[in-house]
């Protein structure tokens, strides 16, 4: 579940909305002129929850074992 509201709606009741995010574990999206500008999500220490955000974000994965910037290392010369 999520709540979408404008900055002007959020500002006077910021503490109320932050408590709602914490209690109900909901997502809060703040908009400016109808466009999303910020997102507030419940805090979690669970690493798997944090990684869920990245799921599906890798567009291309060619050679994961190849060193990065191989030509930059003097020891390889």
Helix tally equals: 3
Structural class computed from helices and strand pairing:
alpha+beta
Q: How many extended strands?
A: 3
Order of helices and strands: EHHEEH
Strand order of the largest sheet: 1-2-3
| Global geometry | elongated
Cα-atom radius of gyration: 20 Å
CATH class call: Alpha Beta
Going by CATH, the architecture would be 3-Layer(aba) Sandwich
Could you tell me the mean pLDDT? 85
Our measurement of the CA-to-CA distance between the termini, rounded to an integer number of angstroms, reads 56 Å
Give unreliable regions as ranges: none
The residue fraction in helices comes out at 25-40%
Q: What fraction strand?
A: 15-25%
Number of domains: 1
CATH fold label? YefM-like fold
Q: Strand count, sense and closure of the main sheet?
A: 3 strands, mixed
Provide an overview of this structure:
The chain has about 80 residues and is α+β, with helices and mostly antiparallel strands. It has a single domain (about 1-65), classed as YefM-like fold (3-Layer(aba) Sandwich), CATH 3.40.1620. The protein has three helices and three strands. It has helices at about 5-10, 15-25, 45-50; strands at about 1-5, 25-30, 35-40. A three-stranded mixed β-sheet has the order 1-2-3. A hairpin with a 2-residue loop joins strand 2 (about 25-30) and strand 3 (about 35-40). The radius of gyration is 20 Å and the shape is elongated. About 0% of the residues are buried. The model has no long low-confidence stretch (mean pLDDT about 85).
């Amino acid at each position: 579940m999520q709540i979408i509201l404008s900055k002007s709606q959020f500002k006077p009741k910021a503490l109320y909305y932050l408590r709602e995010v914490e209690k109900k574990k909901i997502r809060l999206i703040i908009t400016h002129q109808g466009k999303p500008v910020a997102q507030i999500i419940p805090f979690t220490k669970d690493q798997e929850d944090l990684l869920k955000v990245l799921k599906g974000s890798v567009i291309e994965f060619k050679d994961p074992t190849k060193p990065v910037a191989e030509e930059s290392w003097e020891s390889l010369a």
